[in-house]
Amino acid sequence: MFWGVRGGGGNFGVVSSFTFRAHPLRRLVYCRNLIYRPHNWQGALRAYAEWTATVPDELTSIVSFLVPPPDWELGDAPLMLFGFA
Predict the structure, then answer these.
(1) By C-alpha distance, which of 68, 15, 16, 13 is closest to 38?
(2) What's the pLDDT at 26?
(3) Three-class SS state of 39
(4) Start-to-end CA span in the chain (Å)
(5) Sign of the dihedral defined by the CA atoms of residues 61, 30, 76, 71, in that order
(6) Low-confidence residues of the chain, pLDDT below 50?
(7) Contact status, residue 59 vs residue 84, Cβ threshold 8 Å
(8) Best CA proximity match to 57, nearest among 84, 26, 23, 82
């Protein structure tokens, strides 16, 4: 945060306070995170491409790649995560 306060550079913002109001949802919301190891990436990405071509616009999804931190106890190999809601 101090880097941002001193000027930071482009595309950087600092939020020191945030106020929000929650709103009730009209129906149940489903969400999930799926985790894949490297040997499954090709098939999982193919299935993801086919699946997202047919889902409604209201569904949001993301694919991320990361090396998990040690406290996750998932090893030190890269992982692919699918998240959707």
Answers:
(1) 68
(2) 85
(3) helix
(4) 30
(5) positive
(6) none
(7) yes
(8) 84
